[in-house]
């Protein structure tokens, strides 16, 4: 009995979501007591507008964007969900392309104008949810699906940043989620991006790796973990008025942390100090680049 009530509640919520978006199916109308002739009559007098076979807009011919998404999902049959760029747009983390993208968990060859239908037998149920009443892939799955397309690296990185900023999924959780999906298209690309931007060294390893980089740039040994203008800095050369800060996390930085970093840099600049920032990844994997920047900065500071 409890299961029946749960199913009835889910169906009622699904029906309400369709109605809120101004979209109903022929089955909905029949269930509400409308006959076939009554449906035809409402089509003729403009109270219903057909947007796809068996899918109707109620009251007006033009649907909102979310109404079009709902209609597209309904048009593709049971189990269809919004996916890829359309899913990213629904979550507020990306922009939709020219066509609405829908995934179905069965073999099909939909040829519907304005739709790009993906046949995906292996789409796990845990990667599907609803948002604003519309069946859609989860934020993590939407990001991974986009990573398997020709989407540019900058736009893909934006998806991750926006998902983090909107508290949909943070980079650590996304990285852990990817571990259970090895071998899927897009996983190496997202993992490489996350590894690069969330890579972190311990304080001791950071200092061990950075000191020879500084020597190669012709710099004397710096002070480490010392306070300057009330802020703890990673590396400091008092005679050169130079500070180097290293960042271990590019993602998941709260607004308060970002504000503190801005205040820190502004305070040092006002005091006549030069601040350089490098990521832990650069220290580990791009030491030559850091050496070149430090050497050029050292030369300029001595002039």
Distance between the termini: 83 Å
Counting DSSP E segments of at least 2 residues, the number of strands comes to 12
Unreliable residue stretches? 1-9
Mean pLDDT: 87
* Structural domains: how many: 3
| Strand order in the largest sheet | 9-10-11-12
The radius of gyration computed from the alpha-carbon positions, rounded to a whole number of angstroms, is 27 Å
Instruction: Give the SSE string.
Output: HEHHEEHEHEEEEHHHHHEEEHEHH
Please describe the topology of this protein.
Layout (H helix, E strand, L loop, with lengths): L1 H19 L2 E3 H6 L4 H9 L3 E5 L2 E4 L6 H11 L5 E2 L1 H8 L8 E5 L10 E5 L8 E4 L2 E4 L1 H9 L5 H13 L5 H9 L7 H12 L4 H14 L6 E6 L2 E7 L4 E6 L7 H16 L3 E6 H6 L1 H16 L1
Parallel strand pairs: 5-6, 11-12
Antiparallel strand pairs: 1-3, 2-3, 4-5, 7-8, 9-10, 10-11
Please sum up the structure shown.
By secondary structure, the protein is an alpha+beta fold. It has 13 helices and twelve strands.
């Amino acid at each position: 009995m409890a299961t029946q009530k749960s199913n009835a509640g889910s169906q009622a919520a699904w029906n309400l979501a369709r109605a809120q978006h101004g979209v109903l199916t022929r089955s909905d109308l029949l269930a509400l007591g409308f006959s076939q002739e009554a449906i035809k009559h409402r089509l003729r007098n403009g109270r219903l507008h057909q947007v796809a076979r068996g899918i109707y807009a109620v009251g007006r011919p033009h649907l909102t964007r979310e109404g079009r998404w709902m209609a597209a999902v309904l048009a593709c049959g049971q189990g269809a969900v919004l996916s890829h760029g359309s899913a990213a747009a629904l979550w507020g983390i990306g922009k939709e392309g020219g066509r609405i993208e829908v995934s179905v968990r069965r073999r099909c060859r939909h040829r519907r104008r304005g739709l790009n239908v993906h046949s995906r037998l292996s789409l796990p149920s845990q990667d599907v949810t609803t948002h604003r009443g519309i069946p859609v892939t989860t934020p993590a799955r939407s990001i991974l699906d986009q990573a398997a397309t020709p989407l540019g690296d900058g736009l893909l990185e934006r998806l991750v940043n926006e998902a983090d900023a909107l508290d949909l999924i943070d980079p650590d959780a996304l990285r852990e989620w990817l571990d259970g999906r090895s071998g899927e298209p897009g996983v190496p690309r997202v993992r490489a991006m996350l590894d690069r931007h969330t890579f972190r060294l311990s304080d001791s390893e950071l200092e061990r790796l950075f000191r020879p980089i500084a020597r190669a740039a012709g710099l004397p040994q710096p002070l480490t973990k010392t306070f300057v203008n009330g802020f703890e800095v990673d590396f400091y050369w008092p005679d050169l008025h130079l500070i180097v800060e290293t960042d271990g996390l590019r993602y998941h930085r709260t607004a308060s942390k970002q504000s503190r970093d801005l205040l820190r840099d502004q305070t040092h600049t006002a005091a006549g100090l030069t601040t350089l920032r490098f990521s832990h990844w650069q220290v580990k994997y791009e030491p030559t680049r850091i050496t070149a920047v430090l050497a050029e900065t050292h030369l300029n500071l001595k002039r």
